Predict the 3D structure of the following.
Amino acid sequence: MEFNTPFYQYHPNWLEESITQAANGSRRNRIQIRYALKANHNPLVLSHIQKAGFGIDAVSGPEVAHALDHGFSPDQINLAGAGKTRSEIRFALEKNIHYLNVESLQEIHRIQEIASELYTTARICLRVNPDIDAQTHPHISTGQKGHKFGIEESDLKRAFQLIKASSRVHWLGYHFHVGSQILNIKVFEDLCHVVNQIQQKYTALGWTPSILNLGGGLGIDYHVPHAQADFQSYFNIINKNLIRQGAEVHVEPGRSLVAGACSLVSEVQYTKLSGGKNIAILDAGMNHLMRPALYGAYHHIEKLGRQNLEILPFDIHGPICESSDCFGRDRDLPKLEPGDLLEIHHAGAYGETMASAYNLRAGIPLKTVDRVVVA
């Protein structure tokens, strides 16, 4: 084994195929992609995203700076986030990014104040809470009443009044986002119908959008190694159901573009029997891949190397001092021993970007290889 474990193993071929499918589908349906940088900010990933001509959906000032530092132009970047600070708004306006997605009436006031101080005009889209059930895990559902995200439709009239009274805020259109890891494609059809209703109501009052940003959320099948997202159905359903009124359509895929672009490779440190269960403890933990501990997310786990062994159910744990530090339970795998390597698939989205130094465990080396092969 030439690398010390654990490490993120990148698969450029998977990434190129994913981006190609997304690019082809978006072009056919006249939809612009703004990649959700929060999913994965690795320079390898960004080089492929930039080459494809995609823009960037940022959710913090540092993400805006990261995109600019990696060659994206300001007019390719939009900034979202329910808690934008004054410094983040100022930075975005100073860098003249394309637009900010505004999530509250108070934020409109703040943007107006900062734009006035800078003698500039802020371009904005209004993020509307569409009150749609994303049919996903509650921790990654973002578009229902009671969520912290966006402006309720009942407050839109007041938002437009504030914009009309402002000399430093220019409205471009709407932004929506209902959640993440959405596998039921009908959710996006429902979203289009809500967008159409809002457009119709406020266009009649003189507010015709030039941008309709439907956010992201397209999911991926984590149970199938190397699975690609169904971009064709996603773009087709938007094109079929959305009334555009001449507006540009933007979407913000993240997970669906990069989830399979990376795996987490880890070495088994110990195995033991506890309460009748086979337990394997790895050198990778929830500080390297948070999703399973955070909301019980499934990641396919594969043993590398010898396969012709007895198949046994194993609980796969990390070394962190939390019982939630578990990558999977009752996973049928060839018998595991210390020194065996495991590949945890689809770590390309919200793996590296959510990594932490919990327990003061050192950061892990990033390797770009097509495949680790163990004899």
User: Anything to note?
Assistant: The longest strand covers residues 262-274.
